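Request:
You are asked to prepare a plain-text protein record giving the amino acid sequence and the backbone structure tokens, at your earliest convenience.
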Amino acid sequence: TCALPIFKKPIVIWGPEYCSAVQWASKNDSALCVTNRNPDELVSTLEKLQLSVSQQKYYAEQAQIAAQSHFNPTLIQQQFLSAISNLT
């Protein structure tokens, strides 16, 4: 197993709605997404996040869950090896 550091910081994704990262985060409620192209919207969202301890805590917890599930290197390797084993 690989022991990776967990930073416990919220994930913020800035991109269009069709972006796969935005779609993943929205589906799993795993990150704070900003889909407006205007950089002022991103800055405004970050400033609001800075002022909201509860939102910081929530998205930090969601990031930790994602690190332990969707982005867990051991699980990813197991899925990869399983897919390779099933090739004919």
Summary: The chain has a mean pLDDT of 91. The longest strand covers residues 12-14. The helical segments are 20-28, 39-51, 53-68, 73-85. The two ends are 28 Å apart (CA to CA).
